[in-house]
Structures are given as C-alpha cells and as structure tokens.
Design a protein that fits this description.
By secondary structure, this protein is α+β, with helices and mostly antiparallel strands. It contains 20 helices and 24 strands. The strands form 4 sheets. A 7-stranded antiparallel beta sheet has the order 14-13-12-11-17-16-15, covered by helices on one side. Belongs to the kindlin family.
Length: 679
Amino acid sequence: MVSSTEYGSHTWELLLTVDHQYEDVDKEIKLQVAGDLHVGGLMLKLVEGIKKAQDWSDYAFWWEQKKCWLLKTHWTLDKCGVQADAKLIFTTQHKMLRLRLPNMKTVRLKVSFSSTVFRAVSDICKMLNIRRSEELSLLKQSEGTLKKKKKKDKNSKEPATEDILNLCNSPVSSGLPANPGLYSKTMTPIYDPVSGSPASSTITWFSDGSLNEQNCSILALSHPTCSPEMLAEMYQPRTLADKAKLNAGWLDSSRSLMEQGVMEEDQLLLRFKYYTFFDLNPKYDAVRINQIYEQARWAILLEEIDCTEEEMLIFAALQAQYHVSKLSLSSETQDSTCESEVDEVEAALSNLEVTLEGGSKSNILEDITDIPKLADSLKLVRPKKLALKAIKTYWFVFRDTSISYFKNKESALGEPIEKLNLKGCEVVPDVNVAAKKFGIKLLIPVADGMNEVYLRCDNEDQYARWMAACVLASKGRTMADSSYQPEVQKILSFLQMKNWTMCSQAASEPENVDMKPECLVSPRYSKKFKSKQLIARILEAHQNVSQMSLVEAKLRFIQAWQSLPEFGLSYYIVRFKGSKKDDVLGVSYNRLIRIDMATGDPITTWRFSNMKQWNVNWEIRQVAIEFDQNVSIAFTCLSADCKIIHEYIGGYIFLSTRSKDHNETLDEELFHKLTGGQE
C-alpha cells in the first residue's frame, strides 16, 4: 500500500525515456511527479533513480510531441505545460554532426542540438578557425538537388571513412568553452607556440589540439583534385527555377537543430549565406579565405552563377596556379606562408572588402566640397523594336547620381536631351577585352518596369571611371565617396587580368603542363574545346597572374567572382500579390530584384536603403515590404518557407551594422530581433 503522503491526488505518473548506454538500466523510467515540480527537480529525481555515477551536465529534456527543449530548469511542469501524456526524452544536448564544407570536405564534430543555429554556427566556426561566423549558416540539401546524384551513385560505394575529418575531441565538441585559437577578439598577432614566430597566413596552429597541422591544411589550403566524373555527378542548375532549389533548405537561425528535424550523424552543408565578407585579413583568415574561394570556385564550375568565356578562362587561370607552379603540393608552401606574402596581398584587401553599402577605404576625397563630375564623349545604344540597335555618339555628363547627355560638348550648358537618375538601377558590365568592347548596361527603374540603356566606352580607363561612377550611383553615392577610386582600381585590375596576349612558348607546349583543364572550367566550356586547346587558352590567360602568390590568387579569384553581375543573388520562386504568374525574387546584399522567370530579365529593383519596414503575415505566409515614396510589395514564397526570405532581409540589415570599431562581439539579440519574426 502507498501512503497518501507519497501518492496524493495532485501527483501523476510521467514516463521518461533516458538516452544512456547502460545495459542493466531500463531506458524507460516512470516517476510520480506533481505539477509544481520544477524541471531541475525532475532531472535530479531521475538521475537519483538511475543510480549511475557519471557527468549528466550535458543532458536535458527533449519534448518529442512539441519538438522543443525544456531548458529553463527553474520552470515548473505546469508552466511548461507538461502533463501525463508528455513524452520526454532525457538526452545529451551535444551530438555528432557531419558538415560538408565549401571545399567539399566533410568534417565530423560534436555540436549543440539545443542552442539556436546562430549560436551553433558560431561554435562551429570557432572550432574551424573561421572568423565572422554571422556570414555563414547551415543548409539542408533539398531533394531536388540530390536526385541526379542518387541515380549516379546506385552502383558506387559509400565514401570511405578516411575522407571524413573527425574533430570530435575538441573542447567545443565536448560542450566546454573553446580555446580561441587564432579566433582573436583583440586582433593581435597570434604566435606559433613552437618556434615563437608569428603564425603564418596559410598554416595556423591550435593549442587545443582539435586541429593539427595536417587537418588545418585541409581547411586552409586548396587541393584541386576534382575530376570531370565528379563534376558530372553533382547537381548543376540549368534554369532560375533550378537555382531556386539551392536556397530552399536554409535552417532557421532562431531555432535549434533538433527543433528542425536534424538528427545525430545527419549531414548538413556549412556555407557562406550572406555575401558580405567583412574585414578579410590573411593574417587571421587563412581558413575563411580558402573556404570563400572554394565556395566561389564550385559555384562557377557548377554554373550556379553565369560568366562569359573570357571570364571563365580568367577563373581557370587563377586556379591553374596550383597546377603550373605546384606550390600547394610542394615544399614551397612553407615559403609562401611568410609574413612578406601577407604584406603583398594587403593592398588587394582594401579593394576586396564588401559591406552592405561598401566601407570607407581612404580619406583622400573627404575634404572635397564640390562633388566631382565626369564629362566624355560616349556612344548611346538603345534597343529598338523594329531596328536591331540605334547607336549614336553624344556628350555625356555624370554629376551626383545622374547622367545627362547632350548633342555635343558645346550644347552642354543648355538643357540635356535626357537626364537619367541611376539611383536604384541595375548596372551590368558588357565587356570583351579581346574585341575592345567596353559596354555598360543600365536597367533603370521606371513606373512600368525597367528602362534599358547601353553606354559604349572607347577604352579601359574611360570604362573604369564611368563604370565605377554608375555602380556608386546605383547605391545612392557620388564620386566624392571615398570608395570611388578603389572601385576604379578594382575594375582596372580585373580588365588587366582579361587582357592577355598569345605566348607561343606556352601555347606550343601544353602537353608539358600537368593540368586537367576539365577540372578548371564548367562542363559547358570543357565540351566546347579539345583538351589541348583548352590548356593553351588557359596558359594564355595565366600569363597575367603567373607571378601571384597562392593567397593573392585566391583573393583575386574572390574579387573577380564579386565582379560578376549575378554575384550575391539568392533566388526564390514567388507569387506577387495581384499577379497571375510566378516570378523569381533575387535577394542580394543591398537589394531585392523581381525577375521574369521565362526570360531571366529584371523587372523591378528595390533597394534596402529605401526600405521602411517589412513583416510577415504568418497565417497566409505572406511577406510584406514598404519602401519610400509609398511603394509597397507583398508576395508569397513558393520554393521555400517565407521565413527564409524574411531572415535573409533581416540578416543583411544586421550585417550592415557591423563596424571594425565594435570589435568582434556580435549583438545576438539584435540579430534575432531582425530575423526571428513573430511566428
């Protein structure tokens, strides 16, 4: 008989499942509990009943039906809503997870399944020595991107276990505070604990022992060993709808892994989600730079982003550094990691930094009170319905954020033929250096869509000055901005890489080079040329970059990637309110673009700088955004959850608040406020 003091009307029986490894202890345990018992007390009562001495500090209750953790141990069962029918599992919060990195290497490590994804990614990045974890997130591969691979892999074997880098012994993996390694909040140089010399730019040392030198080289150095067969097996998007599938699986940063159906030993992709690479520095960011480079490289090889044949050869030439010089696979690697190499690429970094609206690079122009202007004779190309093109030379004047053009230089004091306001427009390069074609395509927002205007420049210098002015004007900035001159230099640098001449020696001896050209270009271009032809063309392009160090080649590759018109665009299929057909929405670091799904042409652009507010109607899953001048849009997302787009917008707004003066401490509360929504 049970006494009334032990078993009263206010108590009830609760079935608990314990995730443990003891064979002599039942995994299901029944306890008599009361509604006023707090969660911590329930844990204590359960552990005392198990009678096994071990560290239970990482354990917590997972509520199976409600898909949530009971982490507030001071809350009572009544407050949590736990009743007799609740299925509570007492399990570890840190579990093993497989992550496929941008360089296609898989790491296995212990991750918190109870923290928000935002915090879990921060811990992962500390383990991998990647600064600025807010730029990354976790992605589930959608079923559509796996179908092709599954068909190909029916007869192939599972990947060997040695292909997986096991990092399960690191402090973060064990649920302990991480040794910062080179993740220095003060940004002071970190020194090699063995030799006492400053840590090199490509090989980093970790005192916590989670990453030895060999493992670090896997993360910080590129090993271009992909084969044409490997490329053929991977998902290659052909249309905008295919590209939309790539962005459908981003996890919700405000919820935990378990809450989103991720189980122990599952595989996720760790990717750079936000294309605003802030404060890149080879002294600290060897792994980060390499992983950005690898993400860019695979995006180009798999044609996730479009580029011209000329640009593809530049990308191939920059990758060819590893094949021609063999630096990455020889003893010269150690030489390339000295401090002098770091100094060589610091100049390139000033042009490489990308923030939401660009960061200040110098103080040269800050004292100018009169905003500079450009005045040149340019060709205006207007597409016509009945004629192919109408090309005519005018006198153009660029002032503030507008372009005016006149019949000739003498009439520039009078009224212009037309004045084009470039604020909020799309600027697309139309360049072929070999053919001496230097064009600028402007898509200017008007009431019924986008007005197309083409400008033709005479030479590289003229093109660089006008292109840089157009890019800044599209963001609402003038040539007085301190980023104008760096933008001009960046464009000239990219054009210089494209401007190569035929070298008879390089072209006549392609067979002497140990290179697999099919691994350096996308399948579309590898099918277009024979192998020897492709090697010869890559070696031609390689002449302009042959003197670069490996780190500088990676930085130039990233810079060239950022120069592509489609850089930083994440696509989603949406249905705008009032529309009868589906459109594609491109989300970038500074704007939203409505794109015609059939033609791929931009219809309208909305800048984040003009945005007043955005919200989500969670009942009908509709995103609503208000802009200046009483412009408002609303749409539902068809290819993914609307929360993903909502988080993208809030995430980019959050990243725009970063500053070097604020150290590296993130305001996590602000991030969740901007991205979490009120679902």
